[in-house]
Amino acid sequence: MDAFYASIEQRDNPALQGKPVAVGRRAGRGVVAAASYEARVFGVRSALPSHMALERCPELVFVPPRFEVYRAVSAQIHTIFRHYTEVIQPLALDEAYLDVTEQWRAYGSATAVAESIRRDIKQQTGLTASAGVSYNRFLAKLASGQRKPDGLFVISPRQGAAFVADLPVEKFHGVGPATTRRMHALGIHTGADLKTWTVPELRQHFGSSAQFYHDIARGEDHRPVEANRPRKSLGTETTFTHDVVEWDRLAAILKDIVRKLAAGCVQKRIAGRTVTLKLRYAGFHTVTRARSAAFPTVEEGVLLSMALELLRSFFPLDKPVRLLGLTISSLVPYDDGTLPVQMGLFEQTV
Questions:
Q1: What CATH number is given to the structural domain containing 179?
Q2: Does residue 222 sit within a domain?
Q3: Which of 306, 312, 207, 300 lies closest to 261 in space, CA to CA?
Q4: How far is CA 62 from CA 22, 51, 232, 271, in A?
Q5: How many Cβ atoms are within 10 Å of 350's Cβ, its own excluded?
Q6: pTM (global) more than 0.85
Q7: Is 150 marked within a binding site?
Q8: For position 282, which CATH number holds?
């Protein structure tokens, strides 16, 4: 979807149409959750601190997020997807992979399927979507960003390897900023550069990701579209208006985070064994520590005990704290509330 959250706000409030819009909190330490294309012209992007966004675009209009609306529209879009295929792998509320290998002939081509989906989304939601069409996930993802907004781009099997060869590695989906810096230090700047490296050579620098990098440099990606893939984790976090150093204050904030996380687990009918605490210091240095219980749990008291133990391990603090986050993983289905929880029994530190 194109600027999904911001586009919904502009759709629902005509006064915002044509204006630079940011979804997020304007005051304090707010960050931009989404930016309209009018705002992006000024360099406003998601995850940008609000004060920096306003410096770049003083006319920027901030709108508080309405996630219940975004989720409802996302469900509407997925209903459209299912008209065309059941093989759908969601990436986020506004993005998904669709495998139409078995369906495209009924429409003439995979490109025709994508065009039909984009047309249905526009007619039923009033929003625009961009699509990438290709023969694997990696290239389809790259293609989806080539003609935004409201566009479609196709990378055929004949074009795949050449398309990747000319592309800077920082544009590769799956190659983040840290990996980009390591590749640049090794003289790898484009797909063509990456293609000259063997798997053993790449493994020395990139470990288990070596085979993936070797393949994508050749336009290859053998990962299937995974329909209904299981959730791996669930988390929540809070950014503070002012830096915090006091144990009592951080513990109180963490208790509220645990309450929200436990409620989310119950709502989604999942339980987990591993709790990971994320702590971000003033200056944006981020550290994480994890703890695993002997059994999966959704009990708020157990989760809080584990989370507080992790928080204590950071004391005395190196610096004031600006963000706390908590994630639960090693998930299992939670059906009847009879999980074998044993409070206080932690089997390992990760």
A1: 1.10.150.20
A2: no
A3: 300
A4: 5, 11, 32, 36
A5: 12
A6: no
A7: no
A8: 3.30.1490.100
d(CA 199, CA 240): 44
Q: To 5 degrees, how large is the angle CA 238–CA 242–CA 246?
A: 85
Handedness of CA 318, 319, 321, 323 (dihedral sign): negative
Averaged pLDDT, groups of 10, the chain, 350 residues long: 97 97 86 94 93 96 93 94 92 93 89 96 97 97 95 96 95 91 96 97 94 96 86 88 93 95 88 93 87 87 93 92 93 64 41
Structure tokens that stand for 72 in this block: 């409802």
pLDDT of residue 283: 78
Query: Which amino acid is residue 303, in one-letter code?
Result: L
237 is catalytic: no
Distance CA 267, CA 270 (A): 8
Beta strand segments in the chain, E: 21-24, 32-35, 61-63, 88-92, 95-98, 131-133, 152-154, 233-244, 270-281, 286-297, 321-333, 346-349
Q: Of the residues 154, 186, 221, which one is the last residue of a structural domain?
A: 154
Looking at residue 31, the DSSP 8-state letter turns out to be B
Cα 134 to Cα 99, 114, 137, distances in angstroms: 10, 11, 7
Residues 25, 86 share a domain: no
Rama region for 77: left / alpha / beta (φ>0; ψ in -120 to 50; rest): alpha
**Strand order in 233-244's β-sheet?**
233-244, 321-333, 270-281, 286-297, 346-349
Tell me which of 55, 59, 86, 95 is the catalytic residue: 95
Total structural domains within the chain: 4
Range of the domain at 240: 233-349
Question: For tokens 């700047």, what's the residue?
Answer: 189
Q: Tell me how far apart the alpha carbons of residues 225 and 119 are, in angstroms, rounded to a whole number.
A: 23
